[in-house]
Amino acid sequence: MRKSLFVLVILFFISSQSNAAPKTLDIYFIDVEGGASTLIVTPLGESMLIDSGFPEERDAQRILHVAKDVAGLSQIDHYITTHWHRDHVGGITLLAKKFPVKNFYDHGIPSVLSSDIDQQLIDAYRSVSQGKAIALNAGDQIKFLADRSLTHINFRIVAANALVVGEEPGSPQIKPCGTDFTPIEEDKTDNANSLGMVLTFGAFRFFDGGDLTWNVENKLVCPKDLIGTVDLFQVNHHGAANSNNPALVRSLKPRVVVIDNGPRKGGEAKTYATLKSVREIEAIYQLHKNLATTWMDNTPSAYIANDDEKCQGEFIKVAVNANGRSYRVEIPSKKIATTYQVR
Ligand SMILES: [Zn+2]
């Protein structure tokens, strides 16, 4: 009896292996309550974490849970800090104590820290990265492991230190361009220095602009469109209104957008209106229901990972088909998944 069960288990294992679907490229939007933390896992199991939430045990635990328990990783291969604010670089020190993190990337540590950057967090980052972090510039790429039988992956930085691809160091943040561009006051915070990046997997394209703000966003699309259209857009700066310049969003023409907002941070009404006004956007996902605005400024509950302020930190998963031609967006806690075609 026991023996036959054993044989059966083996047979099931073999058949499930041989029928295993080709692996997807997965993107997890981890809930760090209005901070940012996005995990990419390639079909070969190589991983990239972009930002690490706040300097709180809560965020390190949530990232660890998704990386280890959900994605089945044993380490983070590439860790990127888009900029030095505490809701982006905060969690990495606590996370790295629990989980191996191999390579560190950022936009460079300024020689003199502006008042919006916390010296303690910088010191902790220097220590955890052992001074080996790589500073990225616009135009740089990070190479992923490749296999000729698999869909091609490309990862490129398009903005860094308030410069976009092709700009000389020292170029101004504000460059008038476009018929309806009204610049906002020069952004002197580190948001403007955020890394902006494009991931492509076959025909699938994803843009993550960290907390880039209005003026730099405009330079990304005018006079030259440096990004092109994308399928998936992580709405900039948690959906803040001094970011998400309509010129950028209209140029990206995403089909799906994800807002990494908190219950009372980001997901602002003006940004929501911009997203609603772009015809190509089919679905707006939010990590949180924004409790500071009305239901009219929130996407329907089926597209929200966390409805209540007191939440379990549920994540949103995007699984891109192995051929890069379609992608499934899923809120696992709600058992809701929708498949979208790549344009
Ligand atoms: Zn932020």
Protein model, in words:
This protein is of the alpha/beta class. 22% of the residues lie in helices and 23% in strands. It has helices at residues 2-18, 57-70, 86-89, 92-98, 119-128, 214-221, 246-252, 269-277, and strands at residues 25-29, 38-41, 47-50, 76-80, 101-106, 134-135, 153-160, 163-164, 196-201, 204-208, 232-234, 256-259, 283-288, 304-306, 316-320, 326-331, 336-341. The strands form 2 sheets. A 9-stranded mixed sheet has the order 6-5-4-3-2-1-15-16-17, with helices on one face. Strands 8-7-9-10-11-12-13-14 form an 8-stranded mixed sheet, covered by helices on one side. Helix 6 links the parallel strand 10 and strand 11 (232-234). The protein binds zinc ion (ZN). Zinc ion (ZN) binds at residues 36, 85, 87-88, 211, 238.
Question: What is the rounded Rg?
Answer: 20 Å
Major sheet: arrangement of strands: 6-5-4-3-2-1-15-16-17
**How many extended strands?**
17
Helicity, as a percent range: 10-25%
Q: What structural category do the secondary elements indicate?
A: alpha/beta
Percent range for β-strand residues? 15-25%
Mean pLDDT across the residues is 94
How would you spell out the order of helices and strands?
HEEEHEHHEHEEEEEHEHEHEEEEE
Distance between the termini: 53 Å
| Unreliable sequence segments | 5-18
Shape: globular
Write out the distinct hetero groups bound to the structure.
zinc ion
| Number of helical elements | 8
Main beta sheet: 9 strands, mixed
What is this entry, summarized?
It contains eight helices and 17 strands. The protein is an alpha/beta fold and about 350 residues long. α2 (about 55-70) crosses α4 (about 90-100).
